Amino acid sequence: MNVHEGLGFSRLSQNEKYAYKIVLKAFSALDTSFDGSQIGRGIDIMKIINVALGDNPNIIYFNKTYLSVITSRLGKKIQLSGCPSRSQIIAMNSELENKANSIISSLFRSGDDEYTLLIKIYEYIQNTIRYDKQEFVDSARGRSTRPLSHNAYGALINRLAVCDGFSSAFTLLSQKLGFECMQVTGRSTYGSNGPVDHAWNIIQCRNNYYHMDATWDTNQCAERGAFSYDYFALTNKEIANDHTWNVSTTPVCSSNDLSYYLRNGLYAGNAYQMMDIFRVAVKNRKVPLRVKLSSALALPQNAGKYLAQSLLKEATRAGGSAQVNYGWNEHTRCFFARFL
After folding, report:
1. Residues 52, 233, 308, 225: is their CA dihedral positive or negative?
2. Which residue, 73, 74, 65, 76, is CA-closest to 26?
3. DSSP for residue 294
4. Between 45-55 and 163-176, two packed helices, what is the crossing angle to 10 degrees?
5. pLDDT tens across 250-264, in order?
6. Is 280 exposed, middle or buried (0-12, 13-18, 19+ CB in 10 A)?
7. Which residues of the chain have pLDDT under 70?
């Protein structure tokens, strides 16, 4: 199996990098267990395994939700569970590789720039993968029933995934296009739910880094019936509104030049710009309205309702009544509306 030292590896300490190489060698050989005696006591082996998996989303042959470290006077053994036969592993790897190549072949067009390629991957994921709500509940209770939903195989072949499956699929497809990409683990809040364990991505494009959370945007797409870009190419400051993680383990994301909203003239720094975007939306009612509002733009407490009413007032001024379905993400300050 082809494996490599990726973006996550670059953020590790020297001792952690040594442990990473031991883990990666075992994964490359499709080992079902391996000796971890040379890994120092101060090293978090589960962290190293997760970083290696985040860099190498093609590693899918074991149940990552149930790993055990067996320590005895003879040393330290890492046991991988849920492994099928070697022939089955090879067949699954081949199926995933062929599927990923087929997706890239269908998405890629000569002349596409980096932004376009990433948008196409993002939309493909939203269009084809469903969030596995039952596995989320089961794994949170410590009894995973669909471990494949945690990796790229479950996401791209079964089209069913939880957050680490989504982020693995995003990593695999973006790596196929030449991007360096890593998985970030931390906690996040979505909708009205409290903070939960979560995984998303940081991708490198040229000399800049960007947060990508395809899971939360896929969930919003399912709710709204339209693509969502609220968590596409965010900075540390932007995503920190509802994501927490150990920032020392990741590159700094400080550029917003790949923002969907900035690229498409849908970012409003003040009320005048917001109303200009609303006026364009009123003229073209078949296209969903998307706008991202600057944190400097003051809004009332019930911001979503206020924005929907402002849009409807503009529609009335343009002639005729209207109704809208709308959504407001207070964390990303993104507003979505569709005329009925």
Report:
1. negative
2. 76
3. -
4. 50
5. 999 999 999 999 999
6. middle
7. 192, 320-321
Kindly report, residue by residue over 188-247, the tens digit of the pLDDT: 988 767 889 999 999 999 999 999 999 999 999 999 999 999 999 999 999 999 999 999
| Cβ atoms of residues 201 and 170 within 8 Å | yes
- The C-alpha atoms of residue 257 and residue 82 are separated, in whole angstroms, by 43
pTM of the model: 0.95
Cα dihedral 35, 41, 46, 49 sign: negative
Residue 3 near residue 51, CB atoms below 8 Å: no
Main-chain phi, psi angles of 3, to 5 degrees: -130, 160
**In residues, how long is the chain?**
340
Burial 208-247 (b: 16+ CB within 10 A, else e): bbbbbbbbbbbbbbeebeebbbbbbbbbbebbeebbebee
Token duo for residue 33: 């267990």
Would you list the DSSP string of 29-63? TT-SEEE-TTS-TTS-HHHHHHHHHHH-TT--SS-
